[in-house]
Write a structure and sequence with these properties.
The protein is about 45% helix and about 10% strand. The chain is built from 19 helices and 14 strands. A five-stranded parallel β-sheet has the order 7-4-3-8-9, with helices on both faces. A four-stranded mixed β-sheet has the order 2-6-5-12, with helices on both faces. A three-stranded mixed β-sheet has the order 10-13-14, covered by helices on one side. It is globular, with a radius of gyration of 23 Å. Bound molecules: nicotinamide-adenine-dinucleotide and D-Mannitol-1-phosphate. The site of D-Mannitol-1-phosphate has 10 residues, from helix 10.
Length: about 500
């Protein structure tokens, strides 16, 4: 067994690829907020490829802004910011590689000045973000900037008074303010979160934040800073002790925080950068002028399918994505959702055959080695349902298209929030709006359909009579027949 560190790289099992470049010589060019599982399987991996190909000046300074990120800091600092990425293909082929592109990790609550210094450094040309859908504070229904987290709210007051930032948005705005005050070129703000128009959303959040701190700064950012949109894709489950053990058993690497993901990877990136960008296209990134068709395809087919399978799956007693996707009843339901409800809302996607894309998704979902849990998909469902599924519902209502599978998912979500599976066992929803959601769903007892009046999620959709009637029917079907029974009923219609 070899404990991972810069010193032990040459001792690793030769099946584990290691950085071929001199990490000590890599200069930083990207400051990344939110060094979670996904950043480490995706952007950091692409940058590792770039550095391996000889690119200079694009090392990553990772930043955690949450107190809970101390665990990542501790794990990475113990192994010189290196980690093992293990990918598994649906056919079982496994590859392992030590990623070296994160050259420094900063825990913002303890080192705010170091984070500001990294953003101030003219070598930093991109600030990238994976801070989750909720991290932008944008109300999905209205598009208004309404942050709810304490750090962002504190920064909205504190930044104007010169206090050190606490939130990712606060650091980005403070960093841009320093650039402006120094007469320097700003950095690009590159969101890699799963949000339609993630660049537009990041721009809206940063501008609204800056407007509250210094309107002239907001105007400067609006004129000078690029916020590229992107479609990002690689299924990356949470690292568990079982994953650590697998890396140790299969590759002999003792790694405190490896990442295990699928082999599939995709990044479609809008070519819009303020201060230059790496030659991403040379390492597998699709650099395009319009990302939207790819984004809509991915969010409405992949991410919405995760929502579609998870509430129904958990109600039926399943635990894993592969479990439900290998079940014919669920597979037929998901393919039906993709074919009859999501795909009619999509424009043609350049170079993509949507039949093949949907079939490949089912192969990816069915991959047992990934061990992705249904529970991972439902954390803060109130952030995900509006971004992934409701755009499909809105478009289908507008065109008179089918909605019955999407509505069954909404009904399953409402039943899931009630916390009881079909066999009577307890379910544990995790959602930042759980209290409000439970009040909303309790209203169903006296006023069926009133759950849809919960505006923070549904906006004005609750007033749609067709949707409301279908929702009431779907809830009744789930109550009488359970999740599997409801799927059977749909399959035989
Ligand atoms: N895991 C995947 O399969 C996957 C795939 C594509 C895109 N993504 C995107 O990446 C995001 C992160 O996913 P992950 O798998 O890395 O999760 P994770 O739980 O491993 O990491 C979450 C990261 O987000 C940061 N974060 C969370 N809330 C924040 C906030 N309010 N402000 C600042 N930082 C915050 C945390 O510090 C942490 O680094 C997702 O929300 C999604 O938008 C994930
Ligand atoms: O992480 P989220 O909230 O964007 O959505 C949950 C999953 O659908 C998502 O993580 C997918 O696994 C990912 O988008 C695949 O690329």
């Amino acid at each position: 067994m070899t404990t991972l560190s810069a010193r032990t790289l040459s001792d690793l099992d030769p099946r584990v690829a290691v950085p071929s470049y001199d990490r000590a010589a890599v200069r930083p060019g990207i400051v990344h907020f939110g060094v979670g599982a996904f950043h480490r399987s995706h952007e950091a991996m692409f940058v590792d490829r770039l550095l391996s190909a000889g690119a200079e000046g694009w090392g990553i300074v990772g930043v955690g802004t949450l107190a809970s990120d101390a665990a990542m800091r501790d794990a990475l600092s113990a192994q010189d910011d290196l980690y093992t990425l293990v990918t598994t293909a649906p056919d079982g082929v496994v590859e392992a590689r030590v990623v070296g592109s994160i050259i420094r990790y900063l825990l913002a609550p303890e080192q705010p000045e170091a984070v500001l210094a990294a953003l101030r450094d003219p070598a930093t040309r991109i600030a990238s973000l994976t801070i989750t859908e909720g991290g932008y504070g944008i109300n999905d229904a209205t598009g208004a900037f309404e942050p709810r987290d304490a750090a962002t709210l504190a920064d909205l007051d504190g930044l104007a008074d010169g206090a050190a930032p606490q939130s990712a948005l606060g650091f980005v705005v403070a960093g841009l303010r320093e650039r402006r005050d120094a007469g320097a070129v700003p950095f690009t703000v590159m969101s890699c979160d799963n949000i339609q128009g993630n660049g537009h959303v990041a721009r809206a959040a940063v501008l609204a934040f800056a407007e509250r701190v210094d309107p002239a700064l907001a105007a400067w950012i609006g004129e000078t800073v690029a916020f590229p949109n992107s479609m990002v894709d690689r299924i990356t489950p949470v690292t568990t002790d079982e994953s650590r053990q697998r890396v140790a058993d299969e590759f002999g690497v003792e790694d405190r925080w490896p990442v295990l993901s699928e082999s599939f990877v995709q990044w479609v990136l809008e070519d819009s950068f303020t201060a230059g960008r790496p030659a991403f296209e040379e390492v597998g990134v699709q650099v395009v002028s319009d990302v939207e068709p790819y984004e809509l395809m991915k969010l409405r087919l992949l991410n919405a399918s995760h929502q579609a399978m998870s509430y129904l799956g958990l109600l039926s007693g399943a635990e894993y994505v592969h479990q439900v996707c290998r079940d014919e009843l669920f597979a037929e339901f998901l393919l039906g959702y993709m074919r009859d409800e999501a795909r009619p809302t999509l424009a043609p996607v350049p170079g993509v055959d949507l039949d093949e894309y949907s079939a490949e998704l089912m192969r990816r979902f069915g991959s047992e080695a990934i061990k992705d849990t249904l529970m991972r998909q439902i954390v803060d469902g109130s952030d995900r349902i509006p971004k992934f599924l409701l755009p499909v519902v809105r478009a289908q209502l507008a065109s008179g298209g089918e909605i019955e599978r999407s509505v069954l998912v909404l009904a399953a979500w409402s039943r899931f929030l009630e916390g009881v599976a079909d066999d009577g066992s307890a379910l544990s929803p995790v959602d930042k709006r759980l209290d409000e959601l439970r009040v909303a769903v309790a209203g169903e007892a006296d006023a069926p359909g009133s759950f849809l009046d919960y505006a923070p999620v549904f906006g004005d959709l609750g007033s749609d009579a067709r949707l409301r009637a279908a929702f009431v029917e779907a809830r009744a079907l789930l109550a009488s027949r359970g999740a599997r029974g409801a799927l059977q009923s749909l399959a035989t219609r």
